[in-house]
Amino acid sequence: MSSLPRATVHLANIVANWRTLAALNPKTTTSAVVKANAYGLGAAQVAPALAKAGCDTFFVAYPEEGAVVREAIGPGPAIFVLNGPSHSTVELFRTHKLIAVLSSEAHVALWAETGGLPCALHFDTGMNRLGLPKSLLETASDALHALEPVMVMSHLACADEPGHTMNETQRAAFDAIAAAFPSVPASLANSAGCYLGRDYGYQLTRPGIALYGGSIPPARIKLAPAVTLEAEILSVFQAKAGETVGYGALFTAPSDMTLATVGLGYADGVLRSASNCFIGWLDGVPCPVAGRVSMDLTTIDVSKAQRSAKAGARVEFLGAHAKLEDQAARANTLGYELLTGLGPRVERLYP
Ligand SMILES: *Cc1c(COP(=O)(O)O)cnc(C)c1O
Description:
Number of strands: 19
Distance between the termini: 13 Å
Mean pLDDT: 97
Number of helices: 12
Radius of gyration: 23 Å
Structural class: alpha/beta
Number of domains: 2
Helix content: 25-40%
Low-confidence stretches: none
CATH architecture of the largest domain: Alpha-Beta Barrel
Bound molecules: pyridoxal-5'-phosphate
């Protein structure tokens, strides 16, 4: 075994989370969003595990990502490309049998000109990020129908705030769009949208982060951790009360304490904003980060775990103890950013 930081990816838990999401909307197709290398955990491993469990629809952001997923899962399942096509990527769509999600008038024009390749239409219902304006349904209805879209979709801006009025506004706007394509499957919900009730399910849901153990679901919904991130202790030492730790002398020992320095830093995805606030778990004992996270190293207070604190022992920074969204909140971020930020140096294991 190397002494590199290690991310053990729990494919069975990702499959279990997908089934948990599917059970929330039993009458719809539950797809899997595997963009950004399956949120950092490895699309070439995650997608086949889900396909084997019966998932037949996948979403990526780029056609290059789609090619990787196609190679991993074979010819059957549908792969949608959220960021759409360009002149230079049309061939990738053709070769790897990818479905273009069209979200601009330039996309629509390109696909009309290309002819015959499958597409979905993404309408903006208020997020103002990507999406065709609803007004096109009046001004270009024939052109849109001529593309014979296999899906119409939109994206929720505030699904993680169940009480936000935007959710209902977007749903109502999307109802009108779905009604304009009565025989085409419609899709609105991301992970948090799956928690808003079956009115938001339409024919297909698009969970991403929840598959990877993130998001903050209602208490009745339990998600399993998708990854355990661990790193080795390199050195254990004593600090006297009043001594400081690390760059900027940002932490001052309030009393004599035992510290351990671990081989994990911001190059591995432990954000600098985790300085003085992340927690590492050593043999189930929480050990707070002391001082600044540096590129390759982080120091933790192991005073309460002295017996386990030895060079070579592994400290958990994400996993069953270090829960993804709790750890993210400590660093003032979200699970999305922690997972997609896992650095290339972190060894991914798929036991
Ligand atoms: C990323 C993305 C999703 C998945 O969102 P999660 O919040 O990770 O569930 C769904 N739909 C679109 C359009 C996306 O960009």
